[in-house]
Amino acid sequence: MNMIKYTQAGLDKLESITETNGYILRYERGTFQSGYCILDSRKVIVLNKFLPLEGRVNALVEIIPQLIVDEEKLDENLKKLYHWIISEKTEEGEQLKTHE
After folding, report:
1. Rounded to an integer, what distance in angstroms lies between the CA atom of residue 77 and that of residue 53?
2. Which one of 21, 55, 58, 61 is separated from 35 by 20 to 30 angstroms, measured CA to CA?
3. Euclidean distance between CA atoms 17 and 83, whole angstroms
4. Is the pTM of this model over 0.85?
């Protein structure tokens, strides 16, 4: 089941998870190998501004599991989305281990 839609509303929800937890999300130009950069000490996430909507959504789905997220700050819909992202990334990790 894919809980993320490649729409502006879907992107807004992902952005809300990061911003609710004190991360600053910036869209900048640069030579990002994977489309994003996380500056942990400053809680800044920089996404390549030239990524299309789908690329932005995918980048945030990759980033969110790496962040420190206080679920208490999220409303119920964002909590469900966060749990879905974490479970998807956990499943991907398990699949990679079984293929090694």
Report:
1. 21
2. 21
3. 11
4. no
Phi, psi at 66, each rounded to 5°: -85, -10
> Radius of gyration of the chain from Cα atoms?
14
Rounded to whole angstroms, the Cα distance separating 84 from 8 reads 19
**pLDDT, tens digit (0-9, with 9 covering 90-100), for 3-26:** 788 999 999 999 999 999 999 999
Which H/E stretch holds residue 46?
strand 44-48
pLDDT, mean of residues 57-76: 94
CA–CA separation, 25 vs 88, rounded Å? 22
SS (H, E, C) 14-31: HHHHHHHCCCEEEEECCC
pLDDT score for 56: 93
- Structure tokens given for 73: 């700050």
Residue 42 tokens, joined = 């400053």
